[in-house]
Write a structure and sequence with these properties.
By secondary structure, this protein is of the alpha/beta class. The two termini are 32 Å apart.
Length: 900
C-alpha cells in the first residue's frame, strides 16, 4: 500500500515555518523554537518578510524562494493573508499546511479568507490542518510544530482533540502521570482535515497502540464512523465528548422529543466498538488499561477483601456503576468453606477476615478467578495486625500472570503499603488507591467488551423467508405528499408506507361525511375507532380527535360530530380532510409499545424503541440504535428498556410474539435505509401480544433528500442489496453475485481450503492451508463504505457454493482502492473473472473511486492475461521484481465489452 496521503503532515522531511520569528511571545517564535528544540531530523526553513535570519537560520521572504522541496508549511501569520500563502505553497509543490493560528468566528474577513484558501488548496492538492491554537506534535519523532511550552513525553498513545485548550490540559495531566504520546493533534476548526482522515492515518501508524479522542462535534459522520470502526478493530479507542446537551435532536414526533444528541453520540460510539468516558482522568486510565491488553468478557465482578467495611462499600460502588456482583458457583463456595475461617462472609464480597495471610488471600482469589461465573476480581487489602502486604502483593502478581481474567488490586493506606504499589507499577498490574476507581475501570472494560461485540455486527439482508418491500409504492406515497407541499404524511399515507415494508397495520378508511363513516363501520364491523384526519394535526388525542370502542351507529354519529366540534374549537385553522374509521382491536393481554425514527444532525437516522401510549414522553422509556440493525442489535435495544422486562410471561399474561416484534424493528430499519426522505416517524401505539404485533397508529415526517449516492444519508453503510444480481456463465450455469455477509464465514473457509496450493499461493503469497479466525472475521465482517467483497455463488442441493470472490479496500485518499480476486480451480476458464471484476468495477465507481490497483505475482500468467483483457496497465514492482503492479482507471473508458 502506498504511503498515506497525510504523511507529509505527520512525518515531514522538510518544513517551512511561515511567520517564524524571534519576537518573544509570538506564535511564530514559539512554534519555531519548539521545532528547533525538539531535535527534528529534517530541514527547517524560516519564512519572514522582514528578517533575513531567524533563530540563526537564513530566512526567505516567500516559501517559493526556498531551494529544494517542502513537505509541510506551518503558518503562524494572520489568517487574512492565507489565500496568498496557499497560492505560493501550491506553486512550490507543498503537500500539507498546518495553521498554528487561532480563528475568530466574529471576523467575517477571516472566514472569507479561509473559504478562499480552502478552494485554492483543493485546486493545488494541498491538505490543511486547523486553524487551531496548539498545532501538531509527533513526540516519537522529535517533531513539535506547536506553541505548547511544556514537556511532552514520547509514548504509544495518540491524542486527537478538537479543543486546543482541553488538549493542553490533557497534556499537563498526562505529564504528571508519566504518560507519553506517539502523536498529539489539535483538530481545531477543521477547515479541511477532519477526525476520520486523522484516524485513518493512526490506524496504520506502528507507533500508536491506542487512540484518545476529544470530540465536540462531527462534520462528516460517515467518514468518522467508518474510520472509527476500522481503528477499533485493531487498537483500543477511548473518547471523551464535550457539549453533550448543546445539539438536542429537534423534531415534532415523540421519537425526536425523547432523544438527546448525547444519547445518539453514545449509540454511535457503542456501535463503533469504542469506549466513551466522562472525564480526562477516566480517558487516560481507560486507555492505559486497554493498551496493557486488559480485557473482560462480562460485567460480573468478585470482590475479595480482609475487611468487610471496605468490601461492602465496594459492593455499593458496583451497584452504583451498574456492575454485577458475581454469584459464586456451588463448587467455589465449597472450596472457600474448606479453606477459609468459619466466620468468612459466605458470599460475594468474599471477606476472608482481617488477619488473612498471603496464602489465604491467594487461595480465595484463585478460587474466584477459576469460577466460570466471574469475569474479574477486585482484591482489597487493608493493613492489619498479622498481615503481610508485600508478600500478598507478590502472590497477586504471580496470579495475574497465570490467569487470563483481570485482577484489580487496591492496597488501602499510604506509607505502609507503598512498597507493594511500587511492585504493582513495575509489574504493570492494574492497581488503585481506592476500590471505587477499580470498579469504574472494570465497568469501562465491560462496556468496551460489549461495544466490541456491537462492532462485529454487520447486518445483512433480512433473514428467513424474506418479504421484498415495495419500495416504489412507498416512494410514490411520499412523492405525492411532497408534490402537494406537505411534509407530514396522514395516518393513511403513513400506514401505506409501513405496509409497503411488510409492517402489519390496522386498516384505515377515510370518511368525508357522517353517513360515509356509518357505511364503512358496517363494512368493517363494530366496534370501531374514529380519528380526525388533518395534515395540520400530528397528535389527534391532543385535540380530542379520537373516539374508541364505538359499538353502534348512534354512538358513531355522536362521536363523529364530537370529534369535528372539538377539533374546530382547539384548532380552528386546521384543515380537516375527514374522519378515519378503523376496526377496534380488542387484545386482552396486549402491551402498548412504540417504534420510531428521528434524525440527528450529525449521524442521520436513529431508530428508537420503548413503551408506547399517550404518556410516552412522561415515561421516557426508550432505547435507540443507529441503523442498519440485525436481530442481535434489536435484542439489545429491547433489553435496555423497562417495558422489555414484561414482554415475556408476566403474572397472568402470556409472553408476546417476540419474533414478530423484532421483525417490526428490522423492517423499520430497512425502511429508513431505503427511504432517505423519511425524517421522523412514530408507530404508536404498536400493539403486541401472544398473537402478533400490529401498528394501530403511525405518523411520518418527510423532507427532500440531499443524498448523492445510495445510502448517503446514513452514518453506517447498510448491506447494499441493490447490487445483488444474477448472471449466466459461458457454460449456461446460473450464478448470483452478491456482497459477502458475516454468515458466509464457513463457506469462505471451505472455499479457501479447496483451492490448490498454487492458487492459494498466488492469492495470499504464502502457503496457508486455511484462513485464521482473525482473517475470516476480517474477510466477512465488512464496512461496506470503505471495502467491498463480492461472492459469486451457485445454488446446490446442500445450499450455496462459492465459486469465486473479488474484493477491494479503499485507500485512505478515498480515490483509489486495492483489489484481490480468487476463483475456484474447477471453475477457472468459464469467464468468471471477467464477470466478477466488472461487478467490482461498478461497485467501486458507485463509491466514487477513480483508480483500482493490485499486486500480482510475475509468474501468475493467467491472472496477468485477465488483467490485460480488463484494461489494467501492468508494470514491474519498483521494489520486488517477483511482483507486478496492475492499475486501472475506473473513470476512463468502461470495461471492454463482449470479452466473453
Amino acid at each position: 500500500m502506498k504511503p498515506h496521503y497525510l504523511t507529509p503532515l505527520f512525518s515531514p522531511r522538510n518544513v517551512a515555518v511561515i511567520g517564524a520569528s524571534d519576537t518573544p511571545g509570538s506564535v511564530g517564535q514559539a512554534v519555531f523554537a519548539n521545532l528547533l528544540a525538539g531535535n527534528f531530523q529534517g530541514k527547517l526553513y524560516p519564512v519572514n518578510l522582514n528578517h533575513r535570519i531567524v533563530g540563526g537560520i537564513a530566512a526567505t521572504p516567500s516559501v517559493r524562494l526556498i531551494e529544494g522541496p517542502i513537505d509541510l508549511a506551518v503558518v503562524t501569520t494572520a489568517l487574512r493573508g492565507l489565500p496568498a500563502i496557499v497560492k505560493d505553497c501550491g506553486k512550490k509543490g507543498v503537500k500539507a499546511i498546518l495553521l498554528a493560528k487561532d480563528f475568530s468566528d466574529s471576523e467575517d474577513v477571516e472566514r472569507a479568507a479561509m473559504d478562499e484558501a480552502r478552494s485554492l488548496a483543493r485546486h493545488y492538492g494541498i491538505r490543511i490542518l486547523g486553524p487551531n491554537v496548539l498545532g501538531l506534535m509527533r513526540p516519537v519523532a522529535g517533531f513539535n510544530a506547536s506553541n505548547y511550552n511544556s514537556r511532552v513525553k514520547a509514548g504509544n498513545l495518540a491524542l486527537v482533540s478538537q479543543s486546543s485548550a482541553l488538549c493542553t490540559a490533557m497534556l499537563d495531566w498526562a505529564d504528571s502521570k508519566g504518560i507519553g504520546f506517539s502523536s498529539v493533534v489539535s483538530v481545531g476548526e477543521a477547515l479541511d482535515v477532519e477526525f476520520g482522515e486523522i484516524l485513518d492515518y493512526l490506524i496504520a501508524d506502528n507507533f500508536t497502540q491506542g487512540i484518545l479522542l476529544h470530540v465536540h462535534h462531527v462534520h462528516d459522520s460517515r467518514r468518522f464512523m467508518s474510520a472509527l470502526r476500522a481503528a477499533a478493530r485493531t487498537k483500543p479507542v477511548v473518547v471523551v465528548k464535550s457539549g453533550r446537551y448543546e445539539d438536542d435532536v429537534i423534531g415534532v414526533t415523540h421519537s425526536s422529543n425523547m432523544v438527546e444528541s448525547g444519547d445518539v453520540f453514545d449509540a454511535a460510539l457503542s456501535r463503533a466498538g469504542v469506549l466513551r468516558v466522562a472525564t480526562i482522568a477516566q480517558l487516560f486510565t481507560a486507555a492505559k488499561v486497554l493498551a496493557a491488553n486488559y480485557r473482560v468478557t462480562g460485567k460480573r465482578l468478585a470482590i475479595v477483601t480482609n475487611g468487610i467495611g471496605p468490601g461492602v462499600l465496594a459492593a455499593d460502588s458496583a451497584y452504583m456503576y451498574g456492575v454485577e456482583l458475581a454469584k459464586l458457583s456451588a463448587a467455589s463456595l465449597d472450596l472457600l468453606n474448606e479453606s477459609l475461617p468459619r466466620n468468612w462472609s459466605g458470599s460475594n464480597p468474599v471477606d476472608i477476615i482481617g488477619d488473612a495471610s498471603p496464602v489465604r488471600f491467594r487461595t480465595a482469589v484463585k478460587v474466584c478467578l477459576d469460577d466460570p461465573n466471574v469475569d474479574g476480581v477486585l482484591v482489597i487489602f487493608t493493613p492489619q495486625a498479622g498481615t503481610d502486604h508485600l508478600t500478598t502483593a507478590q502472590l497477586m502478581v504471580g496470579l495475574q500472570r497465570e490467569s487470563n481474567k483481570p485482577l484489580f488490586l487496591s492496597w488501602l493506606g499510604d506509607a505502609k503499603v507503598s512498597e507493594s504499589r511500587e511492585l504493582f507499577s513495575k509489574s504493570k498490574c492494574a492497581h488503585f488507591r481506592a476500590p471505587e476507581f477499580a470498579i469504574e475501570v472494570f465497568r469501562n472494560l465491560a462496556s468496551y467488551h460489549q461495544n466490541q461485540q456491537l462492532l462485529l455486527q454487520t447486518p445483512g439482508p433480512l433473514e428467513g423467508e424474506r418479504l421484498v418491500p415495495d419500495v416504489l409504492s412507498a416512494r410514490a406515497v411520499i412523492a405525492a405528499a411532497q408534490a402537494e407541499g406537505r411534509s407530514i404524511l396522514s395516518e393513511r399515507e403513513s400506514k401505506a408506507v409501513l405496509a409497503a415494508f411488510n409492517i402489519p397495520v390496522n386498516p384505515t378508511r377515510l370518511a368525508a361525511s357522517e353517513d360515509e363513516a356509518v357505511r364503512y363501520a358496517a363494512e368493517i364491523g363494530y366496534p370501531v375507532v374514529l380519528k380526525i384526519d388533518s395534515p395540520d394535526i400530528i397528535y389527534k388525542s391532543d385535540v380530542g380527535g379520537v373516539e374508541l370502542n364505538i359499538s353502534n351507529e348512534a354512538t358513531l354519529r355522536d362521536a363523529y360530530r364530537g370529534i369535528i366540534g372539538r377539533t374546530l374549537q382547539a384548532r380552528p385553522e386546521a384543515k380537516i380532510v375527514g374522519i378515519s374509521v378503523q376496526p377496534m382491536r380488542k387484545r386482552r393481554f396486549a402491551r402498548e409499545l412504540m417504534v420510531g425514527v428521528t434524525h440527528d444532525a450529525s449521524f442521520g437516522p436513529v431508530i428508537t424503541f420503548g413503551a408506547g401510549g399517550i404518556a410516552v414522553e412522561v415515561m421516557q422509556d426508550r432505547a435507540l440504535s443507529l441503523p442498519p440493525v440485525n436481530h442481535y442489535l434489536v435484542e439489545r435495544m429491547i433489553d435496555k428498556t423497562r417495558i422489555g422486562k414484561i414482554l415475556g410471561p408476566f403474572k397472568n399474561m402470556p409472553g408476546i410474539d417476540l419474533e414478530a416484534l423484532k421483525n417490526i424493528v428490522l423492517h423499520v430499519s430497512e425502511l429508513v435505509c431505503e427511504l432517505p426522505e423519511v425524517r421522523e416517524m412514530d408507530i404508536n401505539p404498536l400493539m403486541a401480544d401472544e398473537s402478533g404485533v400490529v401498528a394501530l397508529d403511525a405518523r411520518i415526517i418527510v423532507q427532500p433528500t440531499t443524498a448523492t449516492k445510495p445510502y448517503g444519508h446514513m452514518a453506517i453503510m447498510p448491506y447494499p442489496v441493490h447490487i445483488v444480481h444474477c448472471a449466466m456463465l459461458k457454460d449456461g450455469t446460473t450464478v448470483m453475485i452478491r456482497p459477502v455477509r458475516p454468515e458466509d464465514a464457513q463457506m469462505q473457509q471451505e472455499f479457501v481450503r479447496n483451492l490448490s496450493e498454487e492458487s492459494r499461493y498466488n492469492r495470499y503469497m504464502s502457503s496457508i492451508k486455511q484462513l485464521s479466525q482473525s482473517m475470516l472475521v476480517r474477510f466477512t465482517q465488512l464496512d461496506y463504505d470503505r471495502e467491498m467483497a463480492l461472492a459469486m455463488v451457485r445454488q446446490t442441493d446442500n445450499g450455496e457454493e462459492q465459486l469465486a470472490v473479488a474484493r477491494y479496500i479503499t485507500d485512505p485518499d478515498n480515490e483509489s482502492c486495492e483489489f484481490a480476486l480468487e476463483v475456484a480451480d474447477s471453475w477457472q476458464g468459464k469467464g468468471i473473472g471477467v464477470t466478477l471484476m466488472q461487478a467490482l468495477f461498478d461497485a467501486a465507481r458507485e463509491q466514487g473511486l477513480k483508480t483500482m490497483v493490485g499486486e500480482v505475482l510475475a509468474g501468475n500468467k493467467g491472472m496477468l492475461k485477465l488483467m490485460a483483457r480488463l484494461g489494467f496497465v501492468v508494470t514491474t514492482h519498483p521494489e520486488d521484481r517477483a511482483l507486478t503492479i496492475v492499475t486501472k482507471d475506473l473513470q476512463g473508458e468502461a470495461t471492454v465489452k463482449s470479452l466473453q
